[in-house]
Amino acid sequence: xxxxxxxxxxxxxxxxxxxxxxxxxxxxxxxxxxxxxxxxxxxxxxxxxxxxxxxxxxxxxxxxxxxxxxxxxxxxxxxxxxxxxxxxxxxxxxxxxxxxxxxxxxxxxxxxxxxxxxxxxxxxxxxxxxxxxxxxxxxxxxxxxxxxxxxxxxxxxxxxxxxxxxxxxxxxxxxxxxxxxxxxxxxxxxxxxxxxxxxxxxxxxx
Length: 206
Hints:
By secondary structure, the protein is mainly α. The chain is 70% helix and 0% strand.
């Protein structure tokens, strides 16, 4: 993988988290494999490669790639508006988080506790999802800019769905952070669209 493709894996994962949050908000359902991939990414501290963060391959990031591609293509027919809005908001919130060393420390120690819960209950257990959602609520949700998730109130009002959405947004922040650590920059989305799409199409074909 070249450096641009590494960035696209991380950015695709930001969009994947956004797509899944949107799915839960609208339908109340999301596949366990996708949820597992995103939650697992929160707990990988020392990856050998970018793909390691997502379980060693990008099979569970395909919906994110498609949403990212539709945003870069600027095709109004294919554009996934809500996921795009959430993904851009996640990139902005991660920039704010980066200035908060105190909050990053809190998140690190809370994720250590969540890791212990995972060893006890398993990755997609309700307790683990609730703990991830609670961590998002206690940290990222305290910023002035907040993500308003739209959808079907029947699903949004269920506490388990609300926890899943927050846990996914937390995973989105983690991937946004990885994207920036790999050299990703918001200006690329404006000025390097052609180059990004060429590399993204390659990832989607492989």
